[in-house]
């Protein structure tokens, strides 16, 4: 692509975002530690850009200082405006920079995944004097376009030959457009209208259906585009960014956070913040430099130094998409009575829907702390559940925690696991829909083939030559794991599937994949978790605790057909159980890496790649201890 120029519109007062913009200029408002201006500049700089201009007025010294300290120093030409010149006047003022090339204009308060290069290419091949990126956003549509995508006017129209769309704040212009703009203050919209009246073509590229559905508000807007001009849109833009990164909590490395804080929902704690003792936050942004005093509670708001802005997340919708992870189901928080509930929507072809409902009822009967089922629609494949909040054990661990506090909550989680492995297993004969679902040799070999296909080949791009010896080793590993005593197991018992509710009480989700398999598979999933590394000392304590509580809780043998997981006495159980840990670790870590490969490379959830280094480190630790037994697998893993 030929080189272009670019211009970032950044002079506005940000009146809709006051009082935030009285303290922080809108271009420097942070999105998870990064000013939105930096995000825009990084995206624009990825194009073959010749020159980048930016106009400044409100708090111009602060923005200029940031530019001078940033990676863009010397790459951006600043155009100061003593009085605001408007969107058209700003471009006319920068005519000397923009007149030599096609140029891209991008508002500084827009977050999007719009492909800028495709907009430029479309403009150059169209004969347009201007090409606007537009989308369907029914609440604010005011750009009238014809059937061929050309702009016909601005405002409302009842014509059947036109439709209305929203300008995204991103456009590409030919240099001759500048001649249509007057000196001094003007609006770029007037430039469009003047171009149209003079016979020039102002075209559009509709990006409405080019991107995944909006993940925070609802499923009606498909383009991932955010105008952060209001507190509501800013809050949702931050939460959306968290979701895209597979997170619910962000704490800037420079923030000082007390150990005994409580977080729930989506939370962003920005640079140089201080959170005092017993602070509670839910669906809240704490802006840079803010000190939150001891015992403060904030929910659904933006908090700065000396002010707070409350935001009604349900103002424009009756449901909010929640949750992260690899599931194809959608989970929504909905208002219900004076509280809320969670709606699960499954695809019509989802084979796990009925199982999820049955397992909820089964585990609930055996005192497993799963969410209560409120109602179910089997035909529509939807179910309404108790709302457990948004705080997973994974997110809980992101806050400063004492080791004793971590040990305590893990012991509580292990106690839940033991109920599943003992009490639920004891009553398996009454549960026909799970007793025949064995996690056996075939499933174990599928997992290791999954690792080879989705991770070794899919992520690492390694083709294995003459892999018969490797297959034989994986065959032996599967036989060994399949030979271990079995119980009802969760099969994905890791920190993102443990919810932490009020009072640090753990609850369990995502259990529809439960089968009859070796209990050690669940325990290693929890204690050797790529999402969070426990210390070796604490891990050993927790293994001892699991063994002790298993023996204490086992009151009778399970059905002999299960090769029962049945401690026969304190001295008789520990040693053979410990021997099952390492093979299950090998098996589990290969499965996890295969899943990260599938979810990132096939499903497009690239944030799962950030867990690969720890997952691979854990697998290498496993295989070093198994080198003699699995030499071919050792060579493969150590070379990854």
Describe the fold and architecture.
There is one protein chain. The chain has 640 residues and is of the alpha/beta class. α4 packs across α7 (188-197) and α15 packs across α18. It is built from 20 helices and 32 strands. It starts with a strand and ends with a helix. The relative contact order is 0.07. The longest helix is centred in the middle third of the chain and has 24 residues, at 403-426. Strands 1, 4, 5, 6, 8, 9, 10, 11 and 12 form a 9-stranded mixed β-sheet that branches. Strands 14-16-18-20-21 form a 5-stranded mixed β-sheet, covered by helices on one side. The radius of gyration is 28 Å and the shape is elongated.
Question: How would you sum up this structure in a few lines?
Answer:
The protein has 640 residues and is of the alpha/beta class.
């Amino acid at each position: 692509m030929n080189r272009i120029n670019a211009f970032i519109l950044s002079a506005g007062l940000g009146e809709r975002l006051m009082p935030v913009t009285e303290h922080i200029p809108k271009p420097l408002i942070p999105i998870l530690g990064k000013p939105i201006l930096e995000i825009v500049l990084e995206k624009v700089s990825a194009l073959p850009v010749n020159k980048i201009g930016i106009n400044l007025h409100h708090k111009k010294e602060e923005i200029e200082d940031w530019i001078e300290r940033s990676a863009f120093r010397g790459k951006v030409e600043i155009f100061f405006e003593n009085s605001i010149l408007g969107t058209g006047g700003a471009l006319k003022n920068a005519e000397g920079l923009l007149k030599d090339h096609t140029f891209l204009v991008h508002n500084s308060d827009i977050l999007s995944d719009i492909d800028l290069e495709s907009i430029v290419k479309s403009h150059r091949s169209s004969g347009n004097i201007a090409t606007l990126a537009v989308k369907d956003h029914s609440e604010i549509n005011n750009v009238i376009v014809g059937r061929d995508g050309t702009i016909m006017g601005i405002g409302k129209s009842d014509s059947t030959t036109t439709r209305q769309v929203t300008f995204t704040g991103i456009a590409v212009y030919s240099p001759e457009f500048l001649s249509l703009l007057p000196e001094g203050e003007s609006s770029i919209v007037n430039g469009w209208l003047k171009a149209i009246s003079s016979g020039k073509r102002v075209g559009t590229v509709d990006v409405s259906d080019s991107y995944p559905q909006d993940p925070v508000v609802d499923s009606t807007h498909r383009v991932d585009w955010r105008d952060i001009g209001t507190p509501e849109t800013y809050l949702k833009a931050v939460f959306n960014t968290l979701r895209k990164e597979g997170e619910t909590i962000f704490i800037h490395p420079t923030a000082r956070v007390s150990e005994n804080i409580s977080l729930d929902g989506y939370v962003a704690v920005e640079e140089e913040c201080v959170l005092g003792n017993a602070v509670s936050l839910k669906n809240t942004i704490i802006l840079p430099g803010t000190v939150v005093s001891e015992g403060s509670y904030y929910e659904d708001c933006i908090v700065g130094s000396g002010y707070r802005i409350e935001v009604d997340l349900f103002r424009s919708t009756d449901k909010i998409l929640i949750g992260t992870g690899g599931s194809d189901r959608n989970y929504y928080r909905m208002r219900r009575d004076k509280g809320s509930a969670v709606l699960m929507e499954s695809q019509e072809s989802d084979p796990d829907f009925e199982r999820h409902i049955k397992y909820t009822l089964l585990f609930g009967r055996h005192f497993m702390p799963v969410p209560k089922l409120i109602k179910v629609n089997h035909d529509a494949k939807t179910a309404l559940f108790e709302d457990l909040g948004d705080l997973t054990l994974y997110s809980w661990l992101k806050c400063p925690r004492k080791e004793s506090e971590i040990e305590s909550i893990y012991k509580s989680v292990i106690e839940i696991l033991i109920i599943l492995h003992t009490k639920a297993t004891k009553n398996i004969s009454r549960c026909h829909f799970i007793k025949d679902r064995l996690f056996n040799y075939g499933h174990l070999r599928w997992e290791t083939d999954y690792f080879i296909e989705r991770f070794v080949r899919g992520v690492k791009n390694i083709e294995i030559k003459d892999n018969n010896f490797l297959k034989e080793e994986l065959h032996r590993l599967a036989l060994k794991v399949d030979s271990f005593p079995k119980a009802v197991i969760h099969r994905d018992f890791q920190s993102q599937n443990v919810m932490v509710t009020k009072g640090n009480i753990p609850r369990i989700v995502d259990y529809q994949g439960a089968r009859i398999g070796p209990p050690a598979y669940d325990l290693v999933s929890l204690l050797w978790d790529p999402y969070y590394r426990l210390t070796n000392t604490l891990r050993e304590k927790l293994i001892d605790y699991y063994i002790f509580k298993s023996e204490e809780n086992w009151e009778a043998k399970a059905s002999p057909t299960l090769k029962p997981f049945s401690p026969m006495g304190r001295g008789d159980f520990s040693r053979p159980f410990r021997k099952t840990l390492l093979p299950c670790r090998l098996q589990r870590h290969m499965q996890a890496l295969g899943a990260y490969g599938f979810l990132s490379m096939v499903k497009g959830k690239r944030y799962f790649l950030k867990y690969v280094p720890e997952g691979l480190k854990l697998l290498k630790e496993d295989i070093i201890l198994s080198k003699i037994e699995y030499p071919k697998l050792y060579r493969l893993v150590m070379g990854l």
